[in-house]
Write a structure and sequence with these properties.
Elements (H helix, E strand, L loop, with lengths): L2 H27 L3 H25 L5 H25 L12 H31 L2 H14 L3 H21 L1 H29 L3 H5 L6 H8 L2 H17 L3 H56 L10
Helix pairs in contact: 1-2, 1-3, 2-3, 4-5, 4-11, 5-9, 6-7, 6-10, 7-9, 7-10, 10-11
Length: about 300
């Protein structure tokens, strides 16, 4: 892969696409999550259209050609995002340098999100490395089946994220109550979805072929992982809204390290079952730690006193 291809992909994903996601976060901050979702959906539709046009119009597609096309589509999407911020949200983005205070706070968010990705994806990478490809394939298929269960959880998290900051400015108790309400909703949806997924998993061989019969059990084992994620996501957002990024980072990094360690121990002997057990264990510990921290915050700063520690 040439430097030009890497540069084109980097510009498309790490610069232009991030402008689009920043626009989405701006919409969330203004309590306009629907507008943010519309911007992202429009840009992704544009990128899909660009991919189709490139494949149809190019008789001999290459990685280099696609990388340039992808970069161009991402750039157009970034410009559309800036236009939407101006016209729909009445914001006027401008080029400038970030302040040191914003960099420090943003770094905490970045590290926390990065640790979350590590916790969520380490099992798949390690399973592919230390187990047979067949086991990794079954595990990946099972994850694909349960992925739609995350949609309502993340949609609810996106639509309430700004509220956690507003509640956090007022009272830790109000923030806790919001976290509890959203957890009941998100947890209820994913619990129902997990039960339905477990019940319908035996249909996989009928839909995909008999060779995927072992994926039935893997899917049933993983069916309630989204439920575990829902039980912690809103407590996590509440702590972020209360200015407790460090605590969230420590919990996420600790769960990631535990997940990786358990995977290294369990995968060689139990393959995907060991990976599933490691994931469930790490998620349950995250749930307990986040809610303990949130309850402690309620008792320590019931009237917004936490703001003096940010």
């Amino acid at each position: 892969m040439s430097i030009r291809v890497l540069l084109a992909l980097a510009l498309g994903e790490l610069v232009f696409s991030q402008i689009t996601y920043t626009g989405r976060f701006c919409a969330q901050a203004l309590d306009r999550p629907a507008n943010g979702a519309q911007v992202v959906a429009t840009v992704w539709a544009l990128r899909l259209l660009a991919a189709i046009v490139y494949l149809v119009a190019t008789p001999d597609p290459t990685l280099a050609g696609w990388s340039y096309f992808h970069m161009t589509a991402s750039f157009v999407g970034a410009m559309l995002t800036v236009f939407a911020l101006n016209r729909v949200l009445h914001l006027r983005p401008r080029v400038g340098l970030a302040r040191a205070h914003d960099i420090r706070r943003g770094l905490g968010f970045s590290l926390t999100i990065g640790a979350s990705y590590l916790k969520n994806d380490a099992d798949k990478t390690l399973l592919l490395t230390f187990a047979k490809p067949e086991a990794a394939g079954l595990y990946s298929l099972a994850y694909r089946v349960i992925t739609p269960l995350y949609v309502p959880v993340r949609a609810l998290a996106d639509s309430t994220f700004a509220r956690f900051f507003r509640e956090g400015n007022q009272s830790a108790t109000d923030t806790y109550r919001l976290a509890r309400r959203t957890t009941f909703i998100g947890g209820g949806l994913t619990l129902a979805g997990g039960i339905a997924t477990m019940a319908c998993a035996p249909l996989l061989p009928w839909l995909l072929g008999e060779k995927w019969e072992p994926a039935v059990v893997a899917t049933q084992w993983l069916a309630f992982v989204p439920f575990l994620v829902a039980l912690q996501m809103y407590a996590f957002n509440a702590l972020i809204g209360l200015g407790r990024q460090k605590e969230c980072l420590f919990v996420t990094v600790g769960a990631s390290v535990l997940n990786i360690g358990l995977n290294l121990v369990l995968i060689p002997r139990y393959t995907w079952k060991g990976s599933t057990a490691a994931t469930i264990t790490a998620e349950m510990i995250s749930i307990a730690a986040l809610w303990v921290l949130l309850r402690r915050e309620v008792h320590r700063a019931p009237s917004g006193e936490h703001l003096r520690t940010i």
